[in-house]
Every structure is written in C-alpha cells, then in structure tokens.
Design a protein that fits this description.
Elements (H helix, E strand, L loop, with lengths): L6 H13 L5 E6 L5 H16 L4 E6 L4 E7 L2 H17 L20 H13 L19 E5 L4 H12 L6 H11 L1 H16 L1 H13 L5 H28 L19 E4 L6 E4 L2 H9 L1 H29 L8 H4 L1 H27 L5 H42 L2 H4 L13 H48 L5 H7 L6 H11 L6 H18 L6 H22 L15 H23 L8 H29 L2 H27 L2 H4 L13 H9 L18 H8 L7 H12 L8 E2 L2 E2 L5
Length: about 750
C-alpha cells in the first residue's frame, strides 16, 4: 500500500518536485581563484565524497567560474533516514510512540521540512555521523561557497498570497510555515504574530492617553509594565504548546557535535563505551574571557561616538536653535546620521562577536547559539538604548550644568544664559527619532535596498554571462561541451532560480528575532514617553511579518530546517527587558511627570526600589495564575503518557502470564513486510496514531517522468565528474591544456 502523507505535503510535493526536477540539495562550487588542475582535483573529490554515500549528482553551469552541483537522494535511502530520525526522537523521549519497523524500514516524510532535514544530515554531517561531510567554506571545501536546499516555489507563492490576504494568522498558517521551513523559523513567526496581537491593547490605550492625557502618565506606565509581564509569561507557555503540537518538546536533548568543533583528546565513556571528543573547559573559559575587553572597547568607542553625536545635536538644537530656525533639517542632522549608521555599526560588531564565538570552540550548535546571542544582545542593547539612556538620565537633568563646560569660551560670550536651558521634551524627540524613525530605516535596509541590489546584480550577471557564453561558443569545444555551456530550454527557468539562490545570503532567523526583542525593549523602557509607540509598532509588525516571509522566499537561501522548541536564549532577554523596563518606566514617570528640577535622588531610588518589588510580586502572581489555569495541550500530553504506560503494563502482564520470559523478550521482533502479527497488533494498541501505521511502501524511485529524464539523460553519455571537468576547463578559457594532476592528462576534458 502507498504510504500516507500530510495534506500540505501531498498538495505541493508533486508540483514542486515536477518543477524542480526532484533536486534535493544544491552545492555551489566556485573555482575562480584556483588553478586548473587543483580545481579539477577538488571537484573530483567533491563528487566522489557525495556519491560514496549513494547520492545522485548532476552538474550545471553557474555564474562566472562556478558550477551548480545538484544532488538527489534516492527515495529508499531518504525514507530510511527519515525512519531512523523518528526512532532517535523516540529514544530521546521527544515522542512517546515507538515507530514500527527495523533498520531497513522506509517511510515517507510527513512534511517537506522533515524530508529536507534528513537530506541536510546526509549531505552535511560528518562521515562518522553518517553524512557526506560537505560543509561550505570550511576545511577542504573552501571552494564550496554555498550549500542549500532549493525553495519550493509553488508552495511559497501560495502561502505568501494566503498570508497577504489575512489580517491574523491562525495556527494552521503557522503549521504550514513550520512544514516548509522547520520549527525554528515557525517559532519566529509564531512569536511575531503573538507579540503583534498583544500590542493591540497598549496601542489602543496609548492612543487614548495621547489624546486625553500627557506623556509620562503613571497609569499608562503601569499598564505597559503589567502588559509586558503577562506577555512574557504567556509566551513561555505558548512555546510549550507549540512544541507539543509540532513534536519537538525536549528536542534540545538531541545534541550533535558541530562540524567546526575541534577536539584535543578522546575519552571512552565507561558506561556506553562511546568515544567522546573532548576540549578542555578551562581553555574555552579563557577564550570566552576575550569578549570582555572587546565588549569594553566596543562600548567605550561606541559610547564615545554616541556622546559626540548627541552633543552635536544638543548644541545645534538647544544652544544655536534660535539662529537656525529657518533650517530645521540641520537641527536633526546628527541624530538622523546616527540612526542611519547604527545598523551598520551593529552589524560590524556582531560579525566580530561571531568570530569570537567561533574561536571559543563550542561543541554543539545550542552552545554556540547561546554564546552568539548573548554577545549580539549586549551589542544591540548598547547601540539601541545607550543614546536614550544618556538623554533621559544625563543630558536632560544635568544639561544646564554640563553644556557651559563643553562650549569654548570664545562662543559663550555670544550665548545668553537662557540658551543653556534644556527642553524636557528632548527625551520624547529622541525616542521618536530612534525608535519610530528607526523602524522605517530598518525596513528600507532590510527589504528595499536588498531588493534593488539583487535586481541590479542579476542584470549585471546576465550581461556578463551572455558575454561569456558568446566567447565560449567561439572557441573550439566539443559538441558535448557546448551543450553543457547552454541551458536546455526545459531547464532555463529552474537554473535561473538556482543561480539566484546560490548567490543569495543565508537567512538568519535569530537576527529577525533579535530585532523584535529590541523593539520590545523600546516599548517597555521608553514607551511611557511616547504613548503612540505601541500603535507604530503594531503597524510596523503587520508589515514586518509579511515582509519577512517575502524576504525569506525571495531574497535569501532556504534555511536548513533546524528543530527547536522555543525562540532560544532570547526568552531570557525578554525577561531581562521586562525587569529593566519596569525600573526605567518608574524612573521616567517620577522624573518627567512634574518639574524635573525638583527631583531628589533619594526619592528616585526609593521609587525604583518599590517598582522592582512590585515587579517581582506581580510576576510571581501571574506565574501562579498561569500554572493554575494550565494548558490543554500539556494536559493531553500527560494523559497520552499515562495511557501508554497503562497499556504497556496491561499488555505485558497478559503476555507474561502465558509466555515464558525468553519468548516474551522476542515479542517485538518480526518482518516488516509480513501480515500484521499478534505482536504488531499489540504495538498498535500500545502506540496509537499515525506514527505506528505499519509500513508497507511500494514506491517508484522517481516521482515524475520529468525527474527521471533529468537525472538519467546524460548518464548514458558521461558522468557528473566528466561533465564538470569539461565545464571547468571551458569556463577557465582553456582550449588545450597539457597540465596534469596525479598523472591524468587534462586535455581529454576539452
């Protein structure tokens, strides 16, 4: 019988595979800076390592001196890898139902992301882990500049059209995003959707307070603080619900060594006998210490830039503002330049922090991600919030005392004493400039500029490719080589997309999640200064959700479907921002709701202390309430566990009553393709649901005739190695070459 698939997979798989010729993975091999014989040798090694694991390959011309190595995993091999992954999930307690079958069992993936994850493992995992070990830009694969799975264009387009037509995404929409791109991406869009819905309340209240009240309202401030605490506590429980729904609860227990991980010694586990690759913890700790001076230097330098920019803006607007009344744009020029430059400064510092995280040599991806997110959050916190912190707690309260010391004596004779007064509205203007205007600038940098840049680069590449093809056709290549240089008519659309995807940047879901966390920090820390901030964020996020999905499918490579049961370490960042936002809101209301000159430090500290105690008490109360309410998904999960344990005990009690122990130990052994036996019926009783349907798949090796023609059309003439070598020589612009490598004459590839 034919194995069943999920509705989403069955709706799109046939069309997508027909359109994409059943291409599971793409590797971009760029040999532009490599000598001819080395380029051929490395290409041979690449193809040999891929095909050694039973994977099929085809090669096509890429942009310039690059080749597209197309990879297909045989269906039986892929189905067995999916089954092994499910068994591993059961062994680590991620799912409770043991999949039926044995080491040769073949199953269909439930979703495209499950299938793609198995392909990702087969291609990128090390040979010891069961993969081909092909990792872009690492070790011997320095010529492999990209490694990715092609986008499912039909499914992507349909889902984008569906999201654009909806005001609010349902859980089924999130299921489809997860099914296409994996749980990690699914959790980001779930977080963005939940956060946007929660913004409705402060947006409505903020608009009302903007109309009928004044900034720094104590009531609005307390509302924002309470709202932020409720949201964070609710989201932590929402993560659990989604992780149960997506069968990834506790997936962090599955830990695999990073390919980049280097070890110094091996130890044998005394219990399991497994060889463990170890790196001394004290050496990693010493490497982590390197971030401290970097953070100090970066903070000092960045703080200095911010202070200079801030003082320039303050001097122009507060001291010389009367003389520049006709040139209002000049007054805001420093802060505009700061807002435009901050994303680039943050990006540069974050890239340096990423290299530091690599140097720390973390063993697993979870450990590396934690280290990287911590560094990125510190840097984003400094660049995003330091200007407003300086404005709120230094410049506005102490500006009249500081400005006279910062202005040259020759200028002070032309400035009256009243010019040294600082307007208390300065903070609100700063908040609007850096938070609200910053959202617009980020949108342009995140969507508009990459879109324009991509189209310009594609036009330039098409022009260069056209010139190269014309030049190559004028040379005396064989007819087969000429055929390799020109795309077949039925492949032109596909190869054009793959070439564009190969040069696109990888999608970083943590970067988008970090952006939302920083926005959350703006609201919790400084939202009381500008009550319309939640409304602006709500509008921005409605566009952001659809824009991020558009960016994901059009501007970035398809990310590997990494599994996760949350948004990762940024949950802790949200809790920190909630705590700090409560203290900041209390301080701002205390300082700016009245005459700031009458503020006393002792009373301010007392206000902040009481606010912190109120925060702790409120958080404890909300945590208690949510625990009492509970979750329907958690209750069903616990009920399922109890039912499985009960059936397990009942079944084995009945079997052991009439069966000897040696016979009982073989209860679960049997043939996968035999008729359902008593033991199989027992398993179905113990483990109900789609995961335990007995597997009997009669499958064709190819899903479509087009896919079969694509992968077999050139096998009768030559293999992938020979075709790639001919392309390398042709694209290198060599008509005849007497260069040899390992005794092989390269002239035969012309």
């Amino acid at each position: 019988m034919q194995c069943k698939r999920s509705q989403l997979f069955s709706d799109h798989t046939d069309n997508d595979s027909d359109e994409d010729f059943e291409i599971d993975w793409v590797v971009l091999y760029d040999f532009g800076d490599t000598e001819l014989h080395h380029a051929i040798d490395k290409y041979e090694t690449l193809i040999r390592d891929i095909e050694a694991f039973g994977l099929e390959t085809e090669v096509r011309r890429g942009h310039g001196t690059a080749l597209l190595v197309l990879i297909r995993v045989p269906r039986n091999q892929l189905g067995n890898e999916v089954y092994r992954s499910r068994v591993k999930d059961w062994l680590f307690g991620i799912v409770h139902s043991r999949p039926l079958g044995d080491s040769a069992t073949i199953v269909d993936a439930d979703t495209p992301s499950e299938e793609m994850r198995s392909v990702f493992h087969l291609v990128t995992w090390t040979k010891e882990q069961g993969g081909a070990g092909i990792t872009a830009n690492l070790g011997q694969w320095e010529n492999v500049t990209a490694s990715f799975s092609p986008h499912a264009w039909i499914a992507n387009t349909e889902l984008l059209r569906k999201l654009a037509a909806k005001t609010v995404l349902g859980v089924e929409d999130l299921d489809q995003i997860k099914a296409l791109f994996g749980e990690k991406v699914g959790f980001y869009f779930a977080f963005l959707q939940a956060y946007s819905l929660f913004l409705v309340l402060p947006a409505v209240l903020g608009t009302l307070f903007w109309i009928v009240s004044t900034p720094y309202s104590a009531i609005f401030g307390m509302t924002v603080c309470l709202w932020s605490i409720i949201f964070v506590e609710w989201w932590k429980r929402r993560e659990i619900d989604l992780s149960i729904r997506w069968n990834v609860n506790g997936v962090g227990a599955l830990k695999v060594n990073r390919v980049q991980y280097t070890w110094e010694k091996q130890e044998i586990d005394p219990i399991t006998g497994e060889v463990q690759k170890m790196f001394p913890a004290h050496k990693r700790l010493l490497r982590q210490v390197y971030f401290i001076p970097f953070a100090v230097l970066a903070s000092t330098a960045l703080g200095g830039i911010l202070v200079v920019t801030f003082l320039a803006e303050a001097l122009i607007s507060d001291v010389f503002g009367n003389n520049l009344s006709g040139f209002w744009a000049v007054q805001y020029l420093p802060i505009i330049l700061l807002a435009v430059s901050l994303p680039y400064v943050t990006g540069t510092l974050t890239s340096i922090a990423a290299r530091l995280s690599e140097h720390e040599n973390h063993r697993t991806n979870d450990e590396f991600e934690l280290a990287q997110v911590q560094k990125a959050f510190v840097l984003n916190f400094i660049t995003s919030f330091l200007p407003m912190i300086l404005t709120a707690y230094v410049y506005v309260p102490y500006g009249p005392k500081l400005l006279p010391h910062l202005i040259p004596d020759s200028w002070q004779s032309h400035i009256s004493a009243k010019d040294f007064r600082v307007d208390a509205h300065r903070l609100q203007e700063e908040v609007i400039s850096l938070s609200m205007a910053g959202q617009v600038i980020n949108f342009g940098e995140e969507f508009v500029l990459p879109y324009v840049k991509r189209h310009l680069m594609e036009a330039h590449r098409r022009y260069k490719d056209g010139q190269e093809v014309t030049t190559l056709h004028q040379r005396m290549h064989s007819e087969y080589t000429k055929a390799l240089l020109v795309d077949a008519p039925q492949e032109q659309s596909l190869l054009a997309r793959l070439r564009a995807e190969a040069t696109a940047p990888p999608y970083d879901v943590q970067e988008d999640t970090m952006e939302m966390c920083i926005q959350f920090g703006y609201l919790t820390m400084f939202g009381v200064a500008y009550p319309l901030m939640p409304l602006g964020f709500l509008i921005n996020n409605w566009i952001e959700l659809r824009g991020d999905f558009f960016k994901l499918i059009n501007e970035c490579q398809r990310p590997p479907p990494i599994r996760s049961d949350s948004i990762g370490p940024l949950v802790s960042a949200l809790e920190f921002l909630t705590w700090l936002g409560t203290l900041s809101t209390a301080a701002l209301v205390h300082m700016y709701s009245g005459d700031i000159s009458q503020v006393r430090l002792s009373r301010l500290l007392l206000t902040v202390f009481l606010a912190e105690q109120a925060y702790l008490a409120t958080k404890l109360m909300i945590h208690f309430i949510f625990d009492k309410i509970g979750s329907e998904a958690v209750r069903q999960e616990e009920a399922t566990r109890r039912l499985i344990r009960k059936r397990y005990l009942e079944t084995f009690s009945e079997e052991l009553a009439g069966t000897s122990l040696p016979q009982a130990s073989h209860t679960y052994l049997g043939s996968r393709r035999s008729a359902p036996s008593t033991s199989t019926q027992t398993q179905q009783a113990l483990y109900p649901g789609p995961e335990v349907v007995e597997v009997e798949c009669v499958r064709s090796e190819y899903k479509s005739e087009k896919g079969e023609r694509f992968w077999n059309q050139r096998k009768e003439v030559t293999g992938t190695r020979e075709a790639g070598m001919k392309l390398i020589v042709a694209l290198k612009g060599v008509q005849k070459s007497s260069e040899t490598s390992g005794g092989n004459d390269k002239r035969k590839w012309i």
